[in-house]
Design brief:
heterodimer, A: 114 residues, mainly beta, Immunoglobulin-like, globular, B: 110 residues, 11 strands
Chain lengths: 114, 110
């Protein structure tokens, strides 16, 4: 069974603080993604990765960095968190070389920036 | 830019009735995937289609194989547990990009 695990499930941060959201997948998928979900916008792609060592900008990368140190792990980093980054964040892995043939999602991380 | 338009944005229906959700694409798509988000916020994959139709219990999805410009999700005999937000996500042809619709909020009433 494909598994994508996100941590933490919930996070409260202060403005200007650093936040790291972690994602681990046991699917051995090359592709991994970070999305944020906001009412009225659906899911929007922040960063994605083709494999270990690779990170690519998605549609809304500003204010976020990503790190893919291994096949299994993909982190989303907010160096200076702002209240506008309050959202629910989803990580996903995909099992196709070109695009994401099927996406497997984590359960989400609810981030509140005060 | 490339867009996925999901309709309706919200829908209320009574138990036992049927419904259809739709996603229109502004460009041809390689594939489409449908998800349901439950009350805890987790996303559950329902269908992945590169063409044709798929069926699973009371759910059935179709992807327009000719022009690849829309997809539908049919829910037959709606149950209370079908309530939630449904998303479609489409993979753009010849581009490394998956675009999500904004979701349909489905509320099944007793």
């Amino acid at each position: 069974e494909a598994a994508v695990t996100q941590s933490p499930r919930n996070k409260v941060a202060v403005t200007g603080g650093k936040v790291t959201l972690s994602c681990n997948q046991t699917n051995n998928h090359n592709n991994m993604y970070w999305y944020r979900q906001d009412t009225g916008h659906g899911l929007r792609l922040i960063h994605y990765s083709y494999g270990a060592g690779s990170t690519e900008k998605g549609d809304i990368p500003d204010g976020y960095k990503a790190s893919r140190p291994s096949q299994e792990n993909f982190s989303l980093i907010l160096e200076l968190a702002t209240p506008s980054q309050t959202s629910v964040y989803f990580c996903a892995s995909g099992d196709a070389d070109w695009g994401a043939e099927t996406l497997y999602f984590g359960s989400g991380t609810r981030l509140t920036v005060l | 830019g490339d867009q996925v338009e999901q309709s309706p944005s919200a829908l209320s229906l009574h138990e036992g009735t049927d419904s259809a959700l739709r996603c229109n694409f502004t460009t041809t798509m390689r594939s489409v995937q449908w998800f349901r988000q439950n009350s805890r916020g987790s996303l559950i994959s329902l269908f992945y289609l590169a063409s044709g139709t798929k069926e699973n219990g009371r759910l059935k999805s179709a992807f327009d194989s000719k022009e690849r410009r829309y997809s539908t999700l049919h829910i037959r005999d709606a149950q209370l547990e079908d309530s939630g937000t449904y998303f479609c996500a489409a993979e753009v042809t010849n581009a490394y990009k998956v675009i999500f619709g904004k979701g349909t909020h489905l509320h099944v009433l007793p």
